[in-house]
Amino acid sequence: MRGISTLTGFALAVEIGDWHRLTGSSIAAYLGLVPSEHSSGGSRSLGPITKTGNTHARRLLIESAWYHKHPYRIGKVMRDRWANAPATSAVRGDAGNRRLHHRWMVLAAKHKKHTVANTAIARELAGWCWSLAVMD
Known about the structure:
The protein contains six helices and two strands. It is mostly helical. Helix 3 crosses helix 6 and helix 5 runs antiparallel to helix 6 (114-133).
């Protein structure tokens, strides 16, 4: 995945530990990347992210999400990494990179603040990292 270097991947693995205890939908909540909610009756009001999870892992994902803002071009570094990875992981990583860049463009077209869009991308990036970590 773009923005996830060897050191970042290692840090995420150490901070999260056993990826199998989480699901694709619960990892964002575990990291505090989901919006807070104040609801009463039929009204639903979403607030800022909860920030209740692992601070270090959340910060790593937020910083990594900025890489998906720029156009997606497969460079030499990415090709070299994919050469060392299983084919299914490389295909999944490519799909994730394409999806996250497209998502960034959609949020930018809706004139979302860059920080809000980046947090949304980080939330989805957490799910993609989880899916790659639990692949067999």
